[in-house]
Design a protein that fits this description.
heterodimer; A: mainly alpha; two-stranded antiparallel sheet; 2 strands; 3% strand; B: mainly alpha; F1FO ATP Synthase; 3 helices; 89% helix
Chain lengths: 293, 94
């Protein structure tokens, strides 16, 4: 096999640094700014600093910084995986990225249809961003998905897409889509507004409940180890030995499985809602009519 | 008197959070039904396992939504509401 050139190795190192350094920087920032607290407590995202703006000052929180970290990491992963693509004799990382791209392409084609051919990159970025955000809690950082502001932003983006594809059939078509049975129009409007709310709450609630349960169990184990091992002398009596390892077992479900599942569900719901909002028959009928005129 | 008022606020918040989580029954039953039917379907047609599993996960996620609304309300009642209400009370007294 041909040896890799120096430039290739240098670029690889840069990309790996792009993947790891932001997480390290986030950890250091958290350690430096975290106020000393008694025991374990459930708190929201910590405010790092406040930007003074003319209308209202903008607090920059942990979740915003962490979602920037996730974005840089995701960019690093993408650049690393797609570095040095070849047509023959392909490397392991190219196998991986080809598999992922084919999977997402098939998934999108399966649930959205032929018209939405351009959607796989969007779906893939939602998947990657959401999964990495939830997995950030494995490093001890605050996962951005357990802050409703971040997830609500994504849900509003999806809502804008839904509205855009409903408007494809013209403004009249948009109004008509609510009056499917004309009597139920108010309920349809409510369910339309409820779509982004329920999407945001679903993702946020799942991740947040996982972290709250994790904190509760960690606190409980601290108390339990004080009761069970409290009679030991000195350091051994003080140190919460039961906290080592046991919360990690639950973390496999709540952080890894639940986080990845929620990313999949968010992407799946995005595809379902967007493709459901687009009325293909009417759109093509209108288009043909226009061409004839 | 102030202690009693704060105690009533804390107790009311805790009771409200507990009552809100009654909503957890519904998703529990619903998801149990969904998984049972999915198991039946896979038993009848093992070749459609992938499609059934992904549809089931979707359905479970949607059934879970009401429970999560209740969870969010309970979390707000436990971690956010007491502080806010006590502050309102203290401001009203002062």
């Amino acid at each position: 096999m041909k040896r890799k050139s120096l430039g290739f190795i240098l670029a690889d190192t840069l990309y790996i640094a792009m993947m790891t350094l932001p997480v390290l920087a986030g950890l250091i920032l958290k350690i430096l700014t975290k106020p000393a607290s008694e025991g374990i407590s459930v708190t929201g995202a910590q405010i790092y600093f406040t930007l003074p703006l003319p209308i209202q000052s903008l607090p920059v929180t942990e979740s915003q910084i962490n979602s920037l970290i996730v974005m840089i990491t995701a960019l690093g992963i993408c650049l690393f995986l797609t570095h040095g693509l070849k047509t023959r004799n392909i490397s392991r990382r190219q196998h991986l990225v080809e598999w992922a791209v084919e999977k997402v392409d098939a998934m999108t084609l399966d649930s959205m249809g032929e018209y939405f051919k351009g959607f796989p990159p969007f779906i893939m970025s939602i998947l990657l961003l959401s999964a990495l955000s939830s997995l950030l809690s494995l490093f001890g950082l605050y996962p951005p998905t357990s802050d409703i502001n971040i997830v609500a932003g994504w849900a509003i983006l999806v809502f804008a897409l839904i509205t855009y594809y409903k408007f494809k059939c013209g403004p009249l078509g948009y109004v008509k889509s609510f009056c499917d049975p004309p009597l139920l129009a108010p309920l349809n409007v409510i369910s339309e507004v409820a779509t982004p709310i329920s999407m945001a709450f679903r993702h946020y609630g799942n991740v947040l409940s996982g972290s709250v349960i994790g904190v509760l169990i960690a606190t409980g184990l601290q108390g339990l180890s004080k009761i069970v091992l409290g009679w030991l002398p000195g350091f051994f009596g003080e140190f919460p030995f039961l906290q080592i390892g046991l919360p990690a077992v639950l973390s496999i479900y709540f952080d890894v499985f639940s986080g990845c599942l929620q990313a999949y569900i968010f992407a799946m719901l995005t595809m379902m809602y967007v493709s459901g909002a687009f009325n293909a028959d009417e759109y093509f009928a209108r288009k043909n009519k226009k061409i004839k005129n | 008197m102030l202690e009693l008022a704060i105690g009533i606020i804390l107790g009311g918040c805790a009771l409200g959070a507990g009552c809100a989580m009654i909503a957890g029954i519904g998703p529990g039953i619903g998801e149990g039904n969904a998984v049972a039917k999915a198991c039946e379907a896979i038993g009848r047609q093992p070749e459609s396992k992938g499609a059934v599993t992904s549809t089931m996960l979707m359905g479970c996620a949607i059934a879970e939504t009401t429970g999560l609304y209740a969870l969010v309300i309970a979390i707000l009642l436990i971690f956010v509401a007491p502080n806010m209400l006590v502050n309102i009370l203290l401001r009203a007294i002062a």
